[in-house]
Amino acid sequence: MPDLHLTEDRATDAETAAIDAAIAAVGVDPAIVFEADRLVRGGVHRKHDRRHALLPALHALQNTSGWISPGGLNHIAEVLGVPPAEGYGVASFYELFRVDSAPDHDESVIHVCVDSPCLATAEAKIAALEAEGKHVHRSPCLGQCERGSTDAAVFIQGRNGPDSVPADQPDELWELPQRGEPQLKLLRNIGRIDPTSIEAYIGAGGFTALAAAFEMGADKVISEVTESGLMGRGGAAFPTGVKWRGVAEAEGPQKYVVANADESEPGTFKDRTIMENDPFSLIEAMTIAGFATGATKGFIYIRGEYPLATTRLQIAIDASRDAGFLGSGIARSSVDFDIEIRRGAGAYICGEETALFASLEGFRGEPRQKPPFPTTNGLFDAPTAINNPETLLNVLPIMLEGGAAYGGLGTERSSGHKLFCLSGAVARPGTYEVEFGPTLREIIDLAGGATGEIAAVLMGGAAGSFVGPDALDMPLTMEAVREAGTTLGSGVVMVFDTDTDFDAVCIRLAEFFRNESCGQCVPCRVGAVRQHELLVRAADAAPKMVLNGEVQLLAEMDLAMKDASICGLGHTASTAVRSAIDLGLIGSPS
Amino acid sequence: MTAVPVTLTETTVTISVDGQNVTVPDGASVLDACTAAGVDTPTICYAENLTPVNACRVCVVEMEGSRTLVPSCSRAAEDGMTVQTDTERVRHSRKMVLEFLGSGTDLSQAPDILGWMADYGADPDRYGADRETMDEEVKVQDNLYIRDYDKCVLCYKCVEACGDDAQHTFAIAMSGRGFGNRISTEFDITLPDSACVYCGNCVAVCPTNALQFKTEFDLRQAGNWREEDQDVTRTVCSYCGVGCNLELHTQDERIVKVTSPNDHSVTSGHLCIKGRFGWQYVHGGADD
Asked: What is A244-277 written as a DSSP string?
């Protein structure tokens, strides 16, 4: 540990108490830290032992003081052995932490989503809130897109109190459009059982998949998952069985399972649907993953703007532990597994798996070059199985029905069930589950059909691409969309009608990447800015954006970002914009 | 009992660089292999005495089996790899990286980068006159070195030299996000208020002169920085018994800056405040 050099700023009593409580809550005892420091000074390892408590401590400080105060940061630095410059570097990385100055008020801050589909109503909403004297912050997608078609989504960042989402109705069962339909496998419990009751979960067949997994043994669990052909549902579509096998065979005294619940891809809200309404299923699936891979510790890294999901997951974790489904000797077996929740703090990039690890470890959410891959060098440099919640949920029917049977669903190369996030110009926006196979048109019809004439559909979110009405008969399978040159990504189907201002939509998409690039590598850090500037310039020059030679320049930038960026953010930062140009949605003189 | 011959074997790997097989020690990087093959590779964030961070992406090469280009500085060479260093794709990405850097950063004191920009045909003016740039004022907070972040390419070298790779002081870190990233102390407090111990190792690794000796800064301001008239004299630091080698850069018979050779076994290019900045006595007094 470095000899810390701190300024004279001191934390207030309230800050100290909040920070110490947050640090203690993640298993680092501030009192013991000080005692140990007197005995053993130094040792970089000691620093890393505690550093994972940095993000929780910063959350506590932000909540108490409304910003990361110099005194509060000094206290965190001292307790965790983190140099204050590094602590500041981490805090300044995240949207939810204010570092520039103390706020001139002690109220909550209202984050208003300015991404599509909220974009159309965001400015009116912001003006109305500001007229009421509220403190407003323009936010990237808040993952409530099913609400955003008519009224921009908001998230309230609490001050000396909990965060909240006003639209959440915690006491009511979710009105899932497909609620209770018999064919559901992933959403089967949603809206049907009380998500805070383990009795209700067990009554609905909960933990029988875990029992089946224990029965078949770790090796067979992985074989069944492999046989099912399950591919990751977060966007990269990597075979889950291969990933788990890699972790199981990797060497290391400690392995981890991480649920990547940093659902920040604009247009995506399926994992929120799952976590808010069926948190026990995620717990059960993660436990199966832990059993299969030999990991005894799981983390759920959940985005900071999901307060209801966070609360319900915590209730589910506590209840599962009390009932013997988490902890040591799960369900009277010799298997140990436990789960901890960590909250992100507003950074799209932290959904990239290596950035997520860095963030959870208490560093800036900067991705790193792969290889090595997480299966051998993941969280804390240990073998790690990292999966999206939707992917994990697929494991439950695989355990109960067998890999072959589940793999027989859907098409040959896209097996099983898939969730789609319908938003924008559809009658009933929401999360929908289908067996792989229906066309784009059929999925839009599932959501009540389009509310206007369809001009384009954004597939896969900001990192995806637009398709035109001629693509409506494309089956939404991995292979068919790839052939059509688009992507399923995280399952976003955002419908735009002919009234859409695509100039504004695309400029905002470009701004999204400009704001969300971590800034580590040059192609993405600068390329995303130049792309945004170029579109703004072209739009300012005429009533409607016209692109001529700029199309070539955009293509050149795109190629460099795709070829030379470190991670997927840079690789995909131009995809949607360029597809909009190709479809004539923007840039054409007419 | 059979005798087992014991031989000292060095493990090596062989990779193909532009069609030429080169053999390098196990653990060497693709960049090392390129160098061994006699291929010049531009690098900005890479330094032989620091851990590669592969942030600048100017050293990318095309690798068989890889969808994207690969940063040669931080990819370990493996047996059977095939890389191309001068394809259209490689040249394009290198050009764009240089162009992007040139479009936002003052590279006027980074002759290597300017040279590569010319080589690769980078034209930063394609991005319009009103583009966002680093747009930073020079920070002059003491008499030892200045920080001109208008020239900063955010290569992380100074952060590494201040932290894990050399000094373990951690006075500076990357802060902000995206294009707003800046090298900073906590809350941008001044260096004298920070943990900085003035070893100057950050200055030594800076590739663009964003960090420079105050002596150099003053001479440049006066229009009297004449690198072509400078001598470099290698000597041993006179302060303690460690034996750090110093390179005294002198102009008009006065020391204007001090470096240490990267390949020196004691320093690896790094010094402490005394060796780096404590030369005033040579001129007969601190204020002389």
From this structure: HHHHHHS--S--EEEEEE---STT--HHHHHHHH
Amino acid at B78: E
Pairing of strands B173-175, B82-84: unpaired
CATH classification number, B12-133, choose in 3.10.20.740, 3.40.640.10, 3.30.450.20, 3.40.50.261: 3.10.20.740
Q: Tell me which chain B residues have a C-beta less than 8 angstroms from the C-beta of A549.
A: none
pLDDT single digits (tens) B100-123: 999 999 999 999 999 999 999 999
Task: Report the run of H or E that residue A343 belongs to, with start and end.
Answer: strand A338-343
Query: Please, what's the largest Cα pairwise distance for chain B?
Result: 82
Distance in angstroms (rounded) separating the CA atoms of residues B157 and B161: 6
Domain assignments of chain A as residue spans, ordered by start: 13-91, 109-157, 198-407, 417-496, 502-582
**Architecture category of domain B138-283 in CATH:** 2-Layer Sandwich (3.30)
- pLDDT, mean of residues B237-242: 94
Looking at the predicted structure, is the pLDDT value of residue B288 above 60?
A: no
* Residues from chain B contacting residue A518 (CB–CB below 8 Å): 177-178
Topology (CATH) of A502-582 = de novo design (two linked rop proteins) (1.20.1440)
Higher pLDDT, B9 or A371: A371
The size of the A-B interface in CB pairs under 8 A is 164
- Gap between the Cα atoms of A89 and B222, Å rounded: 35
- B-chain CB neighbours of A93 within 8 Å are 175-177
Supply the pLDDT for residue A34.
57
ipTM score for this prediction: 0.94
State pLDDT tens for residues B71-96. Answer: 999 999 999 999 999 999 999 999 99
Residue A92 and residue B175: Cβ atoms within 8 Å? Answer: yes
CA A206 to CA A199: how far, in whole Å?
Answer: 9
Alpha carbon distances (Å) from B122 to A525, B101, B103: 17, 10, 10
Please state the pTM of the whole predicted model.
0.95
Rounded distance between C-alpha atoms, residue A220 and residue A167, angstroms: 43
Range list of β-strands (E), chain B: 12-17, 20-25, 60-63, 70-71, 82-84, 138-139, 145-148, 173-175, 182-184, 211-213, 231-236, 245-251, 254-259
